[in-house]
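Second attempt. The first submission of tRNA pseudouridine(55) synthase had a stray character pasted in from the spreadsheet, which I only caught after the job came back as garbage. Lesson logged: always re-copy from the clean sequence file. Corrected sequence (503 aa) follows.
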Amino acid sequence: MLSNQPTVGVAIRWGTVSGMAETDLVEKDLEQLLPTLPSDAVNHFLSLGLCVRCIFRLFGVQGRVYTSPSLSPSLFPPPFPIPTQVCRLCLGILQFHNQNVPLLISNMLKQHAYHFDTFSLEVSIPSIILHNDNSLRSYMKAKYGSQPWFQQNSLIGCVSTKDALKFSILSPLENLLECKSTSMSSFRIRLTYSHAEASKGDEKTSDSAAEWRKRRKTGESNVVGERQSSSSLEHESSDCCKFLLEMANEPCDFTFSCYRTPFYFGGRYLKYSRNVSQTRWIIDDERMGEASVEEIIGGNILQACQGDSFKFHAAGREDIDVRMLGPGRPFLVEVQNARYVPSELTVEDVEKRINKLENKLVRVKNLKLVGSDGWNLMREGEAEKQKQYAALVWISRPLKDDDFQCVSSLKDLKVLQKTPIRVLHRRSPLEREKIIHWMKIETIAGSSQYFLLHLCTQAGTYIKEFVHGDLGRTHPSIGSILGCRAEILQLDVTDIKMECFLA
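This time the job returned cleanly.
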């Protein structure tokens, strides 16, 4: 938490030739601006307890003038003393403009070793400040609506507190970071302002504003009503300001942070082990399997990007004892808050590092950086995708010649599957209809009861249960088709018919 009181430290940085030149330009802009503002309105706003920067933004002033360190009420000496108080509009956000903020942000970024060539500045402020602006704008319309300067100002519009704050911070921050700000940058710097008392008053202020709008509508019936409405409007606006002043005994506090929007890596993985799960699998504090695809791929990518964390997403999953072969399974790795911006060379190095691991458990293909549209690529057609398998099957009798023709002749076979017993503890007890598009049997030399079953199915088909029938919960099954007991010994995924992340 940082203090919002004025400090002096930034003068060290601005004491350069270019810094002094920039300061001189700001002060010159300020000198030219002051005579153009209506003095009666300025003095009145000062008497209401508005800070100088808020007065500027009410008149639609934009640009670097907000960076001036000399923006204090003494610029406009009124004929009466100005009470020391927190600004009723910005709750001190602009009033106690801290010129050390850009330097503090710069030091934080150096400490965390972020790499970036552009940045985006985000500001979060209490919502009551917007109510403050709306209330005072209505008050201005009632009091000054007939004056030329207000009519001209209506075309320009007021500057928001967020924009005024950015005007005061962005230029020195760009100088310190030696790069430009852009709303499209993946690297974000965020200032968050909060005010405990103002937060409590948000709901009350919102209700008051709604009641005022209702009264205003009912007061427009005639000329007398309009005069009463105008008088009531000014009175209620003043009451609103007094109410806000009672809440704003202290200025806003603020924190700042930085983060990078996620990077997405897309590709396909192959899994050669029958003892590797897709994601980290822990039961009763004990690891299941020797490793996981998620940790092998995501861990290497995270290390290369120097991020905080990662999320692994895949187009479906295979069981821990099932290999993933062929062109591989599509996956996405989402890296959170990376310090390092990966290049194409970085991506190539990560792919090589994974594929050269000694254990040879997992391999990656076609790894590349993708945008957030990688989600669309992976989800597109996922529900309708086809998957091919090779299953090692044992049956309780020797194969017959008719079995080959019987199995291969079945095309687009509809299968009803109740939720398998082995996953019933974690999935809803439903009955699903799936399609087996085609099948064929491949014999194994020297064996009449073992064979390889190659099949292509609709996504989501339980292959193990299709072979052995799951005590009748899957029908038909290979066992019921061949009229004997059938058991599956091993299973491999040999292809996933999806277009994304292919070479």
